[in-house]
């Protein structure tokens, strides 16, 4: 197996209680996963914990640090570009808090090896589910997925899922600078872009368990962005040739403001 086969990107903001445990759990699988943590200047010292662990996993554990909380979406976009530049063939998204079980990483990988371009760890297909998630979060999440499917007609059950394996070709084909949403809408847009570009998406059932340590970063703005974002995606796909514009090497852009947003991001050297 080539060295640069699989990398798991974990975005973090204040995950001190979880980060060392999840990193150790991924490496304990002995499945040759590399791990990239994108930390947004967590005041609780998450990045320092990752740095201290790097000597245990030389050449396998990486850390990128940004100076402030800039959202899940731009953290992943940075991680995607970082991973593609180094030649990883399978690139994963995963939360830091054990909502996604490390043991399921291999199942997502297998789904891609067996032909899927994008494998989604899905709570809302047969065999999937949630454990210990508050009723209001379940309603919001299921309602959000239903709303997205009704508006976009995208054939994905868990549209906001954050546990994903992409074949590198999918991320290479998408103009990542055109992916503009930050929160749950980012998760929706990545699936929407992959679907619009004709990639095969497979939902693999997973059990999502609520975090035991730390707090969710969910806030009202994320919900608002999701509601409006889905309408925008539909609008752009109907009237603005979204498919062509989100393709890599497209000369036109759907979201000209993205350039400006990017410049706000300051990286820790
Ligand atoms: N770098 C960075 N990381 C962030 C940020 N916001 C959140 N994170 C990290 O992103 C992961 C998920 O954030 P949570 O706040 O734990 O998400 P959740 O409420 O449990 O949301 C779940 O449901 C969402 C909707 O279905 C999913 O999108 C998400 O992946 C997860 O499954 C965690 O590792 C968290 O530290 C940010 O601004 N920057």
How would you sum up this structure, described in words?
The chain has 269 residues and is an alpha/beta fold. It has one domain: Alpha-Beta Complex (Spore Coat Polysaccharide Biosynthesis Protein SpsA, Chain A). The chain has ten helices and nine strands. The strands form two sheets. It has a seven-stranded mixed beta sheet, sandwiched between helices. Helix 5 packs parallel to helix 8 and helix 7 packs parallel to helix 8 (220-239). Guanosine-5'-diphosphate-alpha-D-mannose is lined by residues 11-13, 15, 38-40, 69-72, 75, 95-97, 99, 141, 160, 162, 184, 187, 216-218.
Tell me briefly what this model is.
With 269 residues, the chain is an alpha/beta fold. It has one domain: Alpha-Beta Complex (Spore Coat Polysaccharide Biosynthesis Protein SpsA, Chain A). It has helices spanning 19-28, 46-53, 72-86, 105-113, 135-152, 168-173, 184-196, 220-239, 242-246, 258-263, and strands at residues 6-12, 33-39, 61-65, 90-93, 118-122, 129-131, 164-167, 201-205, 207-209.
Characteristics:
single chain; 269 residues; alpha/beta; Spore Coat Polysaccharide Biosynthesis Protein SpsA, Chain A; 7-stranded mixed beta sheet; two-stranded parallel sheet; 9 strands; 41% helix; 16% strand; binds guanosine-5'-diphosphate-alpha-D-mannose
